[in-house]
Write a structure and sequence with these properties.
Blueprint lengths: L3 E4 L6 E2 L6 H12 L14 H13 L5 H18 L1 E2 L3 H8 L4 E5 L4 H10 L6 E3 L12 H10 L6 E5 L2 H9 L3 E5 L13 E3 L2 H12 L6
Parallel strand pairs: 1-4, 1-6, 4-5, 6-7, 7-8
Antiparallel strand pairs: 2-3
């Protein structure tokens, strides 16, 4: 039985990405680092600058440079968070999410930006796992596993909803079923989802099917 719902935040529940100047953030980050770093991450649709910014944080995970790098990026995310807009169908979707016992946000956004978004859009969850030096970020499973720990549920009792291939890899690596939201993009690279839908309305229907046991992970 599915008891818990894990939710990506940016471009799943709320559009922050389009309001963050990740290109300026990336320039500031590379100026600080004095070099470019790389990591093996899934292909996704965020755009060159946002994708590279997140890839850099993955590459720096566990290093002494991570905190400063994350803070540089979050300065720009905070500005975007204040201008963020809800994804289409957010209200109806969160009503369906509320019918499950437990729910958590699992996001690559920094903690300050995450808090702003959750407060502005009145998103009610039991736990929040934003990016942190304590966990390898998505696409690693660490954030997902931390959310499960905070909710006190097993991987088999959870499903995750997200818009990116990074979310999918993190969820599946943690043993959690995944619902992919394409946001109507014509090309995606979801490979291991129990369902792939266009938007939150579609995700709502999948959650309803899981709740009524007409769909199983």
């Amino acid at each position: 039985m599915i008891r818990g719902i894990l939710l990506d935040l940016d471009k799943t529940l709320v559009n922050v990405l389009d309001y963050v100047d990740y290109c300026s953030a990336l320039r500031a980050l590379f100026k600080h680092l004095g070099r470019e770093v790389n990591a093996d991450v899934p292909e996704t649709y965020w755009g060159v600058c946002a994708s590279k910014a997140m890839e850099t944080l993955v590459a720096l995970s566990g290093s002494v440079e991570w905190d400063t790098a994350s803070n540089i990026i979050e300065e720009y995310e905070i500005k975007g968070a204040g201008a963020s807009t809800p994804m289409h169908g957010l209200g109806r979707f969160m009503d369906e999410v509320g019918k499950f016992d437990k729910k958590a946000i699992v996001t690559l956004l920094g903690p300050k930006a995450t808090k702003i978004v959750i407060q502005i859009h009145k998103i009610n969850v039991d736990a929040v796992v934003s990016r942190s030096r304590d966990f390898k970020p998505k696409p690693y499973p660490d954030q997902v596993l931390q959310a499960l720990k905070l909710l006190d549920i097993r991987p088999s009792e959870a499903v995750m909803v997200g818009d990116s291939e990074w979310d999918e890899k993190a969820a599946v690596s943690a043993g959690v079923c995944f619902i992919g939201v394409t946001n109507r993009r014509p090309v995606h690279h979801f490979k291991s989802s129990i369902a792939v839908v266009e938007d939150l309305h579609g995700a709502c229907e999948v959650l309803r099917a899981l709740r009524k046991n007409s769909l199983v992970c």
